[in-house]
Amino acid sequence: MIERIHQDLMETFKDDPGRLKHIFGVKETALKLAQNIPNIDQDKLIIAAYLHDITKGKSQKYHQDMITSYFSNDILKAYTPPLYHAFSAAAYAQATYDIKDDTILDAIKHHTVGRPAMPLIEKIIFISDYIEPNRPYKVCQEVREIAFQDIDLAVYHAINNSINLFSEEKHIIPKIAYAARDYYKVTSGQDPIFETDRLSFYFAQKNDAPIFHRWWNDGNLMVSVGFEDGLNISLQKIEQQIEKSFIDPEATKLMIVYHKATKTPLGEASFGEFNPKDKSMRIGLKIGDLTQQGKGYGKELTRGLCQYIKTAYHVNTIYIDTLLDNKRAQKLYESLGAETLEIKRRFWKDPKGKWRDVIFYRLKGGNHG
Ligand SMILES: [Fe+2]
Ligand SMILES: [Fe+2]
Fold first, then answer.
1. Could you report how far apart the first and last alpha carbons of the chain are, in Å?
2. Is residue 18 part of a domain?
């Protein structure tokens, strides 16, 4: 099969020597990266490398037709047109070579912006596409040097560079790229994700679940968000939620916030409903350690979180909401310059069956106060 694909490549790109050079560069780089990895399937690497850009010269209509017939319309919504070729190439691999192996198909599909938790072959193809020697850019060469030492760190830099480049060029960036960037930032050991004067912010991990379990089931703490008996949620459920928040691009991201000095847990921050098109996001926060209230941590946490999502996700509109009964939260958000969008009466029925009113705010990027 490899020989057939090779001939196909030579024919498809006979008038595009640059593309051919790139594709062979990806193959060579992938094999070099795999050199010291035992038991890696080199044939799969070669097939994925050969086919990753096979439909690159095709029309927009071709990409769309292939994607809708082999996968789903959701891909057209989740990705931007310049990235469609990855999915039409995977469809082509299925159609032309009857390739059913998900390792190969996924490596082709995700070679443009990656995704969280890529299997090894997928990760190698992704990074090889970025660093192959014919890439002229200096940033690619810098990542190349890292890739042979620490592939996760290289993947992080590659995705982060791409996000920043797309953003400068005013392209819409798929959410999955941000999720992948965050994932590899953590797996390459770059914790905490960010810090403020007194606080350190980490993406929640499975081993943080007992802390959330304590907080979320504590009625004294949860009464302010409408659960006077706590959430009554199991440790296992929380572990699943944390896992999802870290992997799924659509899920709300959960962060745990520590005191920088004492390394003790203070509270949580979350952000979701990310809309890369209108550059908006909804945030939430909670101080889990009630003894720490009244020390300005809520303000520091909110401001830090806003600053972070503004730079890391290129967001400029931030939404936040709270129960109308929660005067402490309203005072905090208003002190940060939040403007009231609306008050929705009887918006939510709490577990005791009582209707609750909710106030919705917009925080303009968190520069206020
Ligand atoms: Fe490509
Ligand atoms: Fe490529």
1. 64
2. yes
- Which residues are found with C-beta within 5 Å of the ion, ligand 2? 53, 129
116: CB partners within 8 A, 6+ apart: 176, 179, 180, 182, 183, 184, 246, 247, 249
Distance 131 CA to ligand 2 centre (A): 10
Mean pLDDT of 80-94: 96
| Nearest ligand, measured from the Cα of 125 | 2
Domain boundary among 148, 175, 202: 175
Statement to judge: residues 133 and 270 lie in one domain? no
Q: How confident is the model at residue 367 (pLDDT cuts 50, 70, 90)?
A: very low
- What is the count of structural domains for the chain? 2
**201-213 pLDDT tens trace:** 999 999 999 999 9
pLDDT digits 0-9 by tens, 102-144:
999 999 999 999 999 999 999 999 999 999 988 888 888 889 9
CATH number at residue 258: 3.40.630.30
Cβ neighbours of residue 218 closer than 8 Å, sequence gap 6 or more:
230
Confidence (pLDDT) at 139: 86
Does residue 134 form part of some domain? yes
What ligand has the least distance to the C-alpha of 56?
A: 1
- Confidence class of residue 156 from pLDDT cuts 50, 70 and 90? very high
Token pair, residue 334, equals 């208003």
Query: Which range marks the domain in which residue 317 is found?
Result: 194-363
Look at residue 366 in the predicted model and tell me its pLDDT: 46
**Position 154 in a domain:** yes
Taking the centre of ligand 2 as the mean of its atom positions, its distance from the CA of residue 135, in whole angstroms, is: 10
pLDDT at 368 over 50: no
Classify the C-alpha dihedral 163-166-168-173 as positive or negative.
Answer: negative
Output the pLDDT for position 364.
Answer: 72
Which ligand places an atom closest to the C-alpha of 129? 2
212, 340: one domain: yes
Kindly give the distance from the C-alpha atom of residue 310 to the centroid of ligand 1, in angstroms, as a whole number: 29
Q: Give the ligand whose atoms come closest to the C-alpha of residue 19.
A: 2
- 318, with CB counted inside 10 A (0-12, 13-18, 19+), is buried
160 and 201 both lie in a single domain = no
Q: How far is the CA of 144 from the centre of ligand 1 (A)?
A: 17
C-alpha of residue 19 to centroid of ligand 2, in Å = 8
